[in-house]
Amino acid sequence: MWESLNTKKNGELIHLNLIFIDEQENLIHATITKTLVPRFKNLLSEGSLYSIKGFKVVKSTGEYRPLSNEYRIIFLVGTSLMKLEEETIQIPINGFQFITPNLIDLRVNNNEILSDVVGCLRGVGDYETVGGGWKKRDITILTNYSETSKITLWGDLGKMFEPKLYEKDNGPVIVIVTSTTIKNFRGEVSYSTTTASKIYINLKTDYVASLVEKFSTISNGVEVIERSNVNKISPEEEMFLNRMSIEELLKTDWSPQLKEYFLTVRGKITEIDNTFGWYYISCQKCFRKLELEDGVYKCSKCNNKCDYPLVKYKIHIKVEDKTAETTLVIFNDIAESLLDTAANKLFKQTTNDVPTEIQSLCGREFVYKLKLNMYNLKYGHENFTVSKVFNLNEKLEEQDELKKIKDHKEKNNNINEENEDKNRKELHFKDITAAKDLEDSDEDYHHSSSLTKKNRKNIIIEDDSDDENMNQKRLRK
């Protein structure tokens, strides 16, 4: 069930969409006009059984149709709903129309009919903001027809796939994404979610179980997809990306416009901070943290109890260098690679003490690639998330240190050269000014000399007068 909104009119409701399934697993699309939505919406809930009467059947037309059916139904004022008990009739909860290879070419860049796609999760990208402020995450799957394809998950759908939530030893992760559009770029087919899309992970159906068996022989590692707008760099370069000391990390004033930032620090683990524990219990479907209620683990995301909860690492470590100390958080995939064992193997219900295997990390020194988010950048909190860990390479560290010294010297030399150039310009300006002053002084001298000669001539002319008159004239001068 989902809403169709008019984005050109501030998200005004157009109609409410539903998909019904019957006992023969036939699917049909239904719509309720916006004037009737208040009448029916609160009477309907996903997964419930209904007997429906008094609706209209019309031909399916237009774009973004969630099913390939020829017809759809429309609710009318006189449509009646009667909720049925679960035991009344055996009807499956879910139904799909999965895309097949022979239909792909017909639907590429054609938004008339949307497509359901299913496959084994192989890669997860970052949740990023793109043009226009839209948020998305790319994932890759190995489809049920054994082709690797990318799916772009828009908006909140992308939040379901944090890379750290998937690990190697949990078996294949089967993903179903409904109502997608299909694109073909440079020969590569990709899918993109719409407002009608829903995502199902490891759904409990016979078909999904068969896919789990099919993909169980394939490597189940989930790779991190690099951002398309970021140039790939080698691990040797990555371990020095925006390198900081811990003191610099803690004292840096971050721009309020910055939403995410990657950097690296080098440090030694001094302590395992067990204030918040070293693990968490997660949902087997969405991998969110579970809450224990009345002795039963419940998932607020799936709104259901979890019969087979998973144990995953979330380790807080104290790390120091020569300048300061801070706290980092290591999640499951990185912790597992460091410890070479799964969290469930160390978990003991009788104690929350830190296992000796985790304590053995103390004293070890690594380079950490940190992913700073709004929690760190805006609010200034520590507990920085570790996105990657590198073993120390002292040769590279020494080369980087020498490069810093060289760059520092070159910077100082450039500053000195700039200062010398500035001093030369100032000295040149002073020389020009002094020469100008001297020239002006010389002109004044010649001018005054000329006046003196002229005055002298006048005095000599008056020399024939008596001394008294001459003296008086001189005084007047």
Automatic annotation (TrEMBL):
State where composition is biased (Basic and acidic residues).
421-438
Record-linked Pfam families: DUF223 (PF02721), Rep_fac-A_C (PF08646)
Q: Where is the Replication factor A C-terminal domain?
A: 262-398
Swiss-Prot/TrEMBL keywords: DNA-binding, Metal-binding, Zinc, Zinc-finger
Q: Where is this region: Disordered?
A: 404-477
Cross-referenced InterPro entries, in alphabetical order? Euk_RPA1_DBD_C, NA-bd_OB-fold, Rep_factor-A_C, RFA1B/D_OB_1st
Show the GO MF annotations: DNA binding; zinc ion binding
Q: Where is the Replication protein A 70 kDa DNA-binding subunit B/D first OB fold domain?
A: 7-82
Q: Which family does it belong to?
A: Belongs to the replication factor A protein 1 family.
Supply the name of the protein. Answer: Replication factor A C-terminal domain-containing protein
